[in-house]
Design brief:
Strand content: under 5%
CATH topology of one domain: Serine Threonine Protein Phosphatase 5, Tetratricopeptide repeat
Radius of gyration: 34 Å
Oligomer: single chain
Structural class: mainly alpha
CATH superfamily of one domain: Tetratricopeptide repeat domain
Helix content: over 70%
């Protein structure tokens, strides 16, 4: 009986050993667990599949992929290198680069890039047949087999990120362009080029013209993709030919160029010694950029193998074969519906932001943030609008919410820094803005705001250091150049300031802030005619935009019209000067600087009574102004020296005074412009310099919000 029972117990063991295990079933389980984001479970079964398949390359890839999803980057990189899959497997090569990048092993990643020719590796695998047995389990790997261009685009994008992290922006831009040429759907590459301000506006448009959209998709899809991508391009000026005030803009650039050239020979007395200062080095670097878009486009086109662009390998064309009538939409309908996309709405808000239409921009942002409260680009613009409005309560709420949700993101601490800067606490503002730059050193708006925190306290060297860094990171943005020029002007380095403004104008020709600052430099050079012309053209653009939007001019343009008044006064056009000062007073009533300027014009015209009235108005608002007090004292002394005033005070009756003598006395009291008191013409207008510097400083402060869009 015992032997029979032993025989009965042995038989099930034999049957179990004779059974089979379906490894493909466990591969499907791994994919299912990955889709369900149960990465630890997926990792457990992926390791068992590797053992069962005796380390099949595709199973090892899945195993390493699970490690990557669990953020075990060093472990994933070690596994791939252990089996040397990066030399034989394109997707493993891509995963290795991603793992090393996330692990901050950038030098190791560069070593992998230099040691392995990925183009040769990809071409050697093109003729390999698909493994139909693993279609369901290895969808990612089959993407490599079905369309290697997509994988190569991903690899080029990773190379670009690696080199950008190493501050080799020339190579980074080159790889991003190659990624877009490998796959027109690689949006991340375009975003890196645009959001990191790597390209000039004309380079972005040139890139759009040369993208192989038709080769990668149908003609209709190409139009749709191009429309989406163009919404991401720079918003400084769009469709200049169709802009409002066409007659203003047509000859504007030529006029400014002639103005710059006509004054070159007069700069000698203002020139500073030419040394290789950091500012001069930045200008040299801008002119001698190592990156050429034309060369990158040529190289990218040469790397594309036309034989790989078959209908089987092009995702857009392959999709047309499996078309479903239920999913077909006319292009016009798609373009209409896509306007509700949060990205398109953010792009429109950014355009309005750069046009200084902050209320309209904020209205769009409010609608957008209801649908997506944490849209990164929208939040950056929202912070900028709140700074512009001075709404520190709302900004505090936004910053607090972001720090709670995303303490590891640069934008959170950027919002906190902007809040403290807005309420006038520079030290905590710098501390938090510095933290934002350390979390993401490619985040340009944080660098600009960091520079503003120093500029507000006249710490020019520290401010310029931050702006220099922003210039390196934001090659295609005019704002760092503008702010460097402002700081150079404040330190009386006029020649260098003008060069930076010229560079800023080359990027954004119609930016009114750049034009205004250029006019200030012309005024400092004592080129009053040129300064007046620049200010006048700037005012025309500002008025044209306000008229187009059916809005009143913002108070921010008060310095512009005051500066126009100063130029007219210097050219003895006193009536025009008064009209501009009165316009500025409408924009900003109760401005002591404007009252002082008007009083001085009246004094030069010989109307001392009116001058004294306006000087008193100015001192009623700002009684500590030494300049106004000094000029007022001079005016009162001149009035007291007149015989008619002495007569009124003393009550003396001068008999025998003829009408001719009284008319002579009247003419003495109200001299013509030619007979204006010489002492007023010789007075050093210190408040002119203060206004110019204040305008530059106010300009810098008011432009704090301009830097927020780098995301604008």
């Amino acid at each position: 009986m015992t032997g029979d029972s032993e025989m009965r117990n042995d038989s099930p063991d034999d049957s179990d050993e004779n059974g089979v295990i379906d490894v493909a079933h466990y591969r499907r389980l791994v994919k299912m667990f990955i889709d369900m984001r149960r990465y630890q479970t997926a990792l457990f079964w992926a390791e068992k599949v590797c053992v069962l398949s005796e380390n099949d390359p595709k199973d090892v890839y899945c195993y390493a992929h699970c490690m990557f999803l669990l953020k075990e980057y060093h472990r994933a990189a070690h596994l791939i290198r252990r089996f040397q899959l990066e030399k034989t497997h394109v997707s493993s090569y891509n995963l290795l680069l991603e793992s090393l990048y996330e692990a901050k092993e950038l030098n190791e990643a560069v070593s992998v890039i230099n040691n392995i020719d990925i183009e040769f590796l990809a071409s050697s695998l093109i003729s390999q047949p698909l493994d139909s047995a693993n279609v369901d389990c290895h969808s990612t790997l089959n993407a490599e087999e079905a369309n290697k261009n997509e994988v190569l685009a991903s690899i080029n994008f990773m190379k670009g990120k690696i080199y950008e992290s190493l501050d080799n922006r020339g190579l980074a831009m080159d790889y991003y362009v190659q990624a877009l040429h490998k796959s027109a759907y690689c949006f991340e590459a375009l975003e890196a080029l645009v959001q990191h301000e790597m390209l000039m506006a004309w380079e972005e448009k040139d890139l759009m013209e040369h993208l192989p959209l038709v080769q990668h998709s149908s003609e209709t899809d190409a139009k749709f993709i191009k429309k989406l991508y163009e919404s991401k391009l720079k918003k400084y000026y769009e469709d200049i030919e169709h802009a409002t005030g066409d007659h203003i803009i047509k000859d504007f650039s030529e006029c400014i160029k002639k103005t710059l050239e006509s004054d070159v020979h007069l700069h000698k007395k203002f020139m500073t010694p030419q040394i290789m200062s950091p500012a001069n080095k930045v200008l040299v670097d801008i002119k001698n950029t190592p990156f050429s878009l034309h060369i990158s486009l040529t190289r990218a086109s040469s790397l594309i193998n036309e034989s790989n662009r078959s209908h089987m390998e092009t995702p857009g064309r392959e999709r047309t074969k499996e078309i479903d009538s239920k999913n077909v939409l006319p292009l016009a309908t798609c373009l209409n519906r896509i306007q509700k996309s949060t990205d398109i709405m953010a792009a429109e808000a950014e355009k309005l932001f750069y046009d200084c239409e902050y209320k309209k921009s904020y209205k769009i942002l409010q609608e957008l943030l209801k649908a997506d409260p944490y849209h990164n680009a929208a939040l950056t613009l929202q912070i900028g609008c709140l700074v512009e409005f001075g709404d520190y309560n709302k900004l505090f709420y936004v910053a607090h919410k972001l720090v709670d949700r995303y303490p590891d993101k640069a934008i959170s601490w950027y919002a906190v820094g902007c809040y403290y800067d807005l309420i006038g606490k520079s030290d905590p503002a710098r501390r938090y803005l510095s933290k934002a730059t350390s979390l993401d050193r490619l985040y340009g708006p944080a660098w600009l705001a960091y520079g503003h925190s120093f500029a507000k306290e006249n710490e020019h060297d520290q401010a310029m250091a931050a702006y220099f860094k922003a210039t390196q990171l934001m090659r295609g943005c005019h704002l760092p150049l503008l702010y460097i020029g402002v700081e150079c002007g404040l330190t009386k380095n006029l020649e260098l300031a003008e060069k930076f403004f010229a560079q800023a104008m080359a990027i954004a020709p119609l930016d009114v802030f750049v034009l205004h600052e250029l006019g200030v430099i012309k005024y400092e050079y004592e080129y009053y005619k040129s300064a007046e012309e620049v200010f006048q053209r700037t005012a025309e653009i500002v008025k044209a935009r306000a008229k187009e939007n059916k809005e009143e001019l913002s108070v921010r343009w008060e310095p512009l019209f005051n500066n126009l008044g100063h130029c007219c006064r210097k050219r003895k056009k006193y009536k025009e000067a008064l009209s501009y000062h009165q316009y500025a007073l409408l924009l900003k009533p109760q401005s002591p600087q404007t009252f002082t300027a008007m009083g001085f014009v009246y004094a030069l015209m010989g109307n001392l009574d009116e001058a004294i009235i306006y000087f008193h108005k100015s001192l009623a608002i700002n009684r500590d102004c030494i300049v106004t007090t000094t000029i007022l004292k001079t005016c009162i002394e001149d009035v007291m020296n007149e015989e008619t005033v002495i007569e009124d005070i003393c009550g003396r009756d001068f008999s025998g005074t003829t009408s001719s003598s009284s008319s002579k006395s009247a003419s003495k009291r109200l001299p013509t412009i030619e007979e204006s008191p010489a002492k007023f013409n010789c007075v050093k207008l210190k408040f002119d310099e203060e206004d110019s510097a204040a305008n530059s400083q106010d300009k810098s402060d008011s432009n704090v919000v301009m830097d927020i869009s780098m995301d604008l």
